[in-house]
Amino acid sequence: MIGKWHLGHHTPDQFPHNRGFENFYGYVSGGIGYWDHNQGGGHDWQRNGKTVREEGYATHLLADEAVRMINTHDQQQPMFLYLALGAPHLPNEAPAESISQYQHIEDSERRIHAAMVSELDIAIGQVMKALVANNMDKNTILFFASDNGGLIKNGMPGIMNTLANWSVSLFDRPIPIAGLEFFASNAFDGGSDNLPLSGGKGSLLEGGVRVPALIWWPEKLSPKKYDGFVTISDLLPTLLEATGRPLQNPKQIDGVSQWQSLTNGTPLEITPDYFVATFNGSALYRWPWKLIDLENPRLYNIETDPNEQTDVSQLHPELVNSLLHIANNWTDQPNRGISVLGALLDMDSFGGGEDREPWAEAAQKNAQQ
Question: Which option is the CATH number for 271-342: 3.90.180.10, 3.30.1120.10, 3.40.50.880, 2.70.70.10?
Answer without folding.
Answer: 3.30.1120.10
